[in-house]
Amino acid sequence: MKTPLLKKQIIKIFKKFGLSKDHALISANALINAELVGAYGHGLSRLKMYCDRISKKVINPKPKIKIKKISQSIIHIDANNSIGFVAADIGIKEAIKSAKKTGISLVGIKNSGHYGLSGYYAEQAVKKNLITFCFTNAPPAIAPHGARKSLFGTNPICFATPTSSKVPFILDTSVSVVNRGKIRVAARTGKKIPKGVALDKSGKPTIDAKKALAGVQLPIAGFRGSGLAWMVDILSGVMTGGNHGGKVKDPFDDFSGPQNIGHLFIVIKPNLFVANYNQRIKENIKRIKRLPKIKGVKEILYPGQNKFKRYKKNINKEINIPTNIAEDLKKLNA
Ligand SMILES: NC(=O)c1ccc[n+]([C@@H]2O[C@H](COP(=O)([O-])OP(=O)(O)OC[C@H]3O[C@@H](n4cnc5c(N)ncnc54)[C@H](O)[C@@H]3O)[C@@H](O)[C@H]2O)c1
Prior knowledge:
Blueprint: H1 3-16, H2 21-36, H3 47-55, E1 66-69, E2 74-78, H4 84-102, E3 104-112, H5 118-126, E4 131-136, E5 157-161, E6 169-173, H6 180-189, E7 198-199, H7 209-214, E8 216-217, H8 223-238, E9 261-268, H9 277-289, H10 305-314, H11 323-333
Parallel strand pairs: 2-3
Antiparallel strand pairs: 1-2, 3-9, 4-5, 4-9, 5-6, 7-8
The protein binds nicotinamide-adenine-dinucleotide (NAD).
Nicotinamide-adenine-dinucleotide binds at residues 39, 42, 114-119, 136, 138, 153-154, 156, 158, 170-174, 179, 301, 303-304, 306-307.
């Protein structure tokens, strides 16, 4: 389907479920962006879930979002159980404004929900020539190192910087071997998942996506990944007042209350210590790209380059909608 038409449909659906025109537009843009960068697990495949959560009153379609300025550079937002896209959009815009004024800003958000791709928000700040860190916690998916039960989410870590070219550096990675969205898509479409990604309920390695969802996902790099997942839970959950320690509810399966996810954004002017950051980052990237390459590698990419390429490739194409999602759209639109 053509992007503008799809966007119109998504906006119509969100408005039907009670979101304001502005909030519907913010949410539709985030979902479309996920499709365009190829992050299908965070795109249309989640539309029905958001609508179900609104219907069951665990996402507040008309939130009264409170923005508390703790200082010129520190802001605490209570999102009042808004859809996560809206909380994060307000949060990153506040962070940008404040960092432009003060050099650095810290924004903590509580009572939010799943916000999709961290890189989507980081990109907004990078486009304003700012360095950005984004953290969010997520429902239990990864077993802490040494534990048999999931507790940490796939808790993405995102670091982004302008590069003085039109392609930003955006490292945006889950701390699980693969992100949960990809496993959900595999479960819905009956595809297998790679080896070494998850264990089933009894602790045995599995390539069955459904068994993986019922079992545990593995963190990247063993105890190191487990430690990173923990750090993200502390920064985005413990510190902001959001849920933490395994209390974030699964958005697809648990409608017993709002998720109360926490997000933390840190936004920094790049030239605080050196006047020529742009030149230095350019030189830094150049040195790495010039390294001798292993066989089969044409170019050493920096994080974000691959997504940028996918976005450029997809932007003028129609968005492919799998049959099961087309059915969702039809039902939600009815
Ligand atoms: N909101 C949530 O609860 C939640 C949870 C988990 C993940 N996510 C989102 O899901 C998205 C996907 O996460 P992921 O872990 O699957 O990402 P990924 O594995 O696709 O990519 C991870 C990072 O590696 C970079 N990369 C990929 N190939 C590369 C290459 N050849 N050379 C250099 N860099 C390369 C990417 O640009 C990216 O920055 C992210 O945007 C993340 O924020 C959200």
